[in-house]
Specification:
This protein is mainly beta. About 15% of the residues lie in helices and about 50% in strands. Strand 6 and strand 7 form a beta hairpin. The radius of gyration is 14 Å and the shape is globular.
Length: about 150
């Protein structure tokens, strides 16, 4: 089992800008278009199980254990959405981690004026060739580099 750490949603410093993104998740049954929190401390995009059921995700049978910044352990299952669009960048068959968000997480996300059932992880952001800009609270297009 691989541990994945997600950062705390409840202890933002006043001088730090929260990064948000326009996201569309397309499952195998339906789709959801929203404004979502970008968590630069989250390795994967995480969605709530209730949203996964509505979208119709494809489960891989692989599990991951999340450890929050507060030390809480939460088990999730890796699934795929048919398509994930982040700021107009299309990612086909994107992996997400499906978990059951607790009410505190949903309340915090709502208070940030973002969708309460999705947190976009940094790997998703990087795959879309975007980078978070904490000075503006947005994602910016990144140039690809070859080394």
């Amino acid at each position: 089992m691989i541990n994945v750490k997600i950062s705390s949603l409840t202890s933002f410093k006043a001088e730090c800008m929260v990064v948000k993104s326009n996201v569309e998740l397309k499952g195998f049954k339906s789709s959801e278009k929203c404004r979502a929190l970008v968590d630069t401390g989250a390795a994967m995009t995480v969605i709530d199980k209730s949203l996964a059921e509505v979208l119709g995700v494809m489960y891989t049978g692989r599990e991951r254990l999340l450890t929050s910044a507060t030390g809480h352990k939460l088990k999730g299952e890796i699934a795929m959405v048919r398509e994930m669009i982040v700021e107009d960048e299309i990612l086909d068959y994107e992996k997400v981690l499906v978990v059951e968000f607790n009410e505190e997480v949903k309340k915090t996300l709502n208070s940030l004026n973002v969708h309460p059932l999705i947190i976009v992880g940094i790997t998703t952001v990087e795959l879309a060739s975007l980078i978070p800009d904490i000075t503006t609270g947005t994602l910016k297009k990144a140039n690809a580099f070859l080394f």
